[in-house]
Amino acid sequence: MDNQAQDTKEQQLVFFSYIDKETGKVLAQDQASGQSGQPIEYQPNERLATLEKQGYTLAYNGFPQGARYSENDQMNQVFAILLKHKQKLVMADEIQGNSQLPDSSKSYTLTISFVDEQGNELHPAVTQQSVWRCPVIIDEVTGAVISRKNDEWKPTQEQYEPVSVPVVKGYLADKSVLPSQPVVQQNINSMVVYQPLGKIVPIMVNGQSVPNVASVQYRNDPDNASKVAVQSLPQVTGYTNNLRSLMPLDPLKDTKVLYEATTASKSVVSTSTSSQKPVNDKGSQEVYHYTVHFLNQDGEKVAEDNVQSSIWQSDGSRDIKNYQDVKAPLIKGYYTIDHRLKGPVAVPFELNHTVIYHRLGKIIPIDENGQEIAGASQPIYQNDPTDPTVPLANQSVPKLVGYSAKVTTITPDDAGLNTKVIYQKD
Predict the structure, then answer these.
(1) Which CATH class is domain 2-85?
(2) Cα dist. 288→282, 292, 318 in Å?
(3) What digits encode the pLDDT tens for the residues 61-80?
(4) So what CATH class is 199-359?
(5) What is the pTM (predicted TM-score) of this model?
């Protein structure tokens, strides 16, 4: 009996306390039991994983490996496992509503004003905003903000959006688009300055304005605030000119357009007009020019200017009565409505006329469903070698591998419009 009593070992209890190191609060407690001297079989991993989700991380594990149940039955064993608060770097908008949140978001603006040369607003300003955020360090247990990373401000966007400059009737902008620009931690103010457009000024052969006829301001290009459109010329009763349209060489300067009287009492050259200089009061000759410019619809030169001159003596006589007619040159890929400009009467001031060239259309291969054939060439119409106002008649359509066109040649109905040609699969 005594030997049996000696072999019996006491049952012991052991406690595992999970304690918040920063507050001393007991977060959880587990227990286990076993015979004195036996290894304690307990794994804290599951409990630690639960506390990890609550924002804690292990600071000190007071439960050593190989621990055994105590031989002392007068005192329970307690193992302390200490945990600390995790910290996390977050952006301000991730913790909205936190009353402890410091000023961790700032806004800056890009303001674009549209004004005339005197600073008067011509169009409402356009404003864009950039938001900058500063990361903060928070306590994952309490959610409290610990500190702010003042050297790590980041914008929510890298660039401001490009801005198309609005068209303002009667004005020309100094640019058509403001390109995108990097955001910065300050407000940006930018201005687009507009200037008044020039005018078409109908004048008579004596250099004076046609009586009772107002100058006509240039029309804006509806798609580009920094350009003007091709201008139609005003009709003036009792007068005629040999132009159908013009493209101003300088949209900010007036263009004088010569109108000749159609009545029997035609205007004559004045030798006493103070606003012009038809003769030289010093007795020497004066040379004036008639210049024809050849431009496309974008105002780009497509051929060299045709320049003629007239020589004027001090008595008002001149070496020629009329300038010669000017034939519009053939420009590949373009057509014009002006085949030949009738030579105007020679006048004692500079004359500038413009011949406008438009892009020729194309041949567009399409399938039987009306869809453009992928990868197929779309050739521009060929010019008529004898007439710059029309494309070549009966021009061949392109050949496509695996397709056959329903027609072999076309004659465009409109020089500026595309022509669709149907192709069938072979």
Answers:
(1) alpha beta
(2) 17, 13, 10
(3) 999 988 998 888 778 889 99
(4) mainly beta
(5) 0.63
